[in-house]
């Protein structure tokens, strides 16, 4: 082969090599692009998978699920239990999330958790031993309010018209439904002949957390009835032993709540009422007169005391037909554990301090001393 032919062969080989290099580069580029795309898609899928696993299973769920965390459970077993009970989406993600945030010291126990809880809320619950959720808003119902006043609070906080609230709590069909649902709490006594409102005094004063943006009026009212039911159920055995009813308890407690001031000794006031009941004396408590009148007044006049109404304890002996307001736990406790005294009279001075007397003459002296 002459030199010219050799050159041609070499040139041809060089051309072919360049082509091969281009082809290899293209193949490498395509493979790299493919790997990148697959990696990107995989990363996107993985990101969404983890993101979804970190979110509540069902943000709108109100169903509570009983979950038991046995003593000695580690993070692995706790994660598995939560996934098995349908509280979280993925046990591994929960475990790594807890580890990443250095969360530990989880407590064994029985929990009522929901699918709407975030991982942080679940972790907080397991660390404190109490179910913890961040409410969307809270509703505070103070002690000593009537149904009409509670309606005004609900309207201001939720936007539900107070009139709609009153219509609901006085609706016979709704009341009957609640009586079926809470038979130990809502007895036939709430439908007594002279009872003004069946549910008066049965909506417990407390701060209520809500986990939906706009709870219905029925949800709000039933939440408060549930709180009353849970509170008074603790006194069921004591009431049965005393031969007293829940209606009697809430009625008596509402009188203490309405007579209370910041410095009031509820136990001593309760003793005054007990002493009067035992002596068959009228209770003569002004809040019952105001309830009978259906209006608030700064001062009860003598003519008001003569109003002909079953709730007027100046004209009728014994307790009124039903509660005149919602009573808090301290007033309920005072009814069941009153002080032992010989007092039959009391008055609150302008500072809210109470002064108790054994006789009417002594009471009049204290009226002159503290109120004139």
UniProtKB/TrEMBL annotation:
The keyword Electron transport does not apply. The chain crosses the membrane at residues 27-50. Its EC number is 4.2.2.29. The keyword Cell wall biogenesis/degradation applies. CDD domains: MltG_like (cd08010). Its main location: membrane. Keywords: Cell membrane, Cell wall biogenesis/degradation, Lyase, Membrane, Transmembrane, Transmembrane helix. The record marks 259 as: Important for catalytic activity. It is found in: Cell membrane. Pfam families: YceG. It catalyses: a peptidoglycan chain = a peptidoglycan chain with N-acetyl-1,6-anhydromuramyl-[peptide] at the reducing end + a peptidoglycan chain with N-acetylglucosamine at the non-reducing end. InterPro entries: MLTG-like. Belongs to the transglycosylase MltG family. Functions as a peptidoglycan terminase that cleaves nascent peptidoglycan strands endolytically to terminate their elongation. PANTHER family: ENDOLYTIC MUREIN TRANSGLYCOSYLASE (PTHR30518). This is Endolytic murein transglycosylase.
